[in-house]
Amino acid sequence: MSSAVVVEDLRKTYGTVRAVGGVSFTVEHGEIFALLGPNGAGKTTTMEILEGFRTRDGGHVDVLGLDPGDRSTARILRERIGLVLQDIAVEPYLTVRETIARNAGYYPAPRDVDEVIGLVDLAGQEKKKVRTLSGGQKRRLDLALGMIGNPSLLFLDEPTTGFDPNARRGAWQLVRNLRDAGTTILLTTHYMEEAQELADRVAVISDGQIVAEGTPTTLGGRDTARARIRFALPPGSTVADLPVVAEQDEDGLVTVDSVEPTGTLHQLTDWALRHGTVLAGLTVDRPSLEDVYLTLTAQNRSAPERTQERSAL
Ligand SMILES: Nc1ncnc2c1ncn2[C@@H]1O[C@H](COP(=O)(O)OP(=O)(O)OP(=O)(O)O)[C@@H](O)[C@H]1O
Fold first, then answer.
1. Do residues 51 and 5 lie in contact, with contact meaning Cβ atoms separated by under 8 Å?
2. Which coarse location class applies to the principal site listed for this UniProt protein (predicted)?
3. DSSP 3-state assignment of 119?
4. 87: how many CB neighbours lie within 10 A of its CB?
5. CB under 8 Å to 150, separation ≥6 — which residues?
6. Which of 43, 157, 161 to mutate to test the pocket of ligand 1 (most atoms within 8 A of CB)?
7. What is the ipTM of this complex?
8. How is residue 125 annotated by DSSP?
9. What's the pLDDT tens digit per position in 9-68?
10. Ligand 1 nearest-atom number relative to CA 38
């Protein structure tokens, strides 16, 4: 079976602003794919083109075997995708149940309304008018509207913004359950933890271009990056006493960067035991997804400035 979404060399410009400058990626059936990127990177523009809400200037796009720019198949596509957008207009004077039931009527084979109310954890709130919902409850209603049509492909644009930590974890489980039941999910998020927890694969988009793509654990060489070993310098010792090269910060914490942490740790713990001391607060880390993301997007942001500096010389 072909991929759920294929994007090749997608381009979109608004006036003089290049929003998307040659983006390519694929989303396989049954996976959760996350687009990460700073404000204005081009995520929403990309999503809107895939959803059929925005025209493209160039490139090839295939969503569930259809071209979202083709008006003749727009209705078929609309029935097979679900949308959770950043700002969904809903009738404020309808109740939660009425809103979900009304949207169910737009699809040929919708999910059961009460089942969906339960899934998004709005049971007990179904008689509330939409205008009285809290921000997080409103967002859960958005999720309900995205999934009521039983879509093959669900677009989630910053799905958990405004959620408290418990609600966020609940929403993550719901999204995983949808994926496990066969729904393909394409999401944007600003929360690295969300991408780490949910995504099978991520692409980082910066200034209209994809700067890295991979699994949350391997993105940007995270898995092979140097490990960072940290601990408190034992009393009476200096960094020069340690058996490896180390740096000490003003709080007394020692940092050792290592390409081979097993051996380095062995040297350090052996040294500590021989000196009858401990490496207090010992931790071993690789760069977090956020570290990698910040490096990737900072490199991209600073590139035009460097060009300017060079040209000023
Ligand atoms: N309708 C529009 N008209 C003109 N420029 C636009 C329009 N929509 C977006 N842009 C511009 O295109 C660029 C990409 O915007 P886009 O909304 O796609 O980014 P984003 O990655 O979704 O950002 P955010 O994380 O803030 O939602 C930005 O420079 C933005 O100002």
1. no
2. membrane
3. helix
4. 6
5. 107, 109, 110, 111
6. 43
7. 0.97
8. -
9. 999 999 999 999 999 999 999 999 999 999 999 999 999 999 999 999 999 999 999 999
10. 25
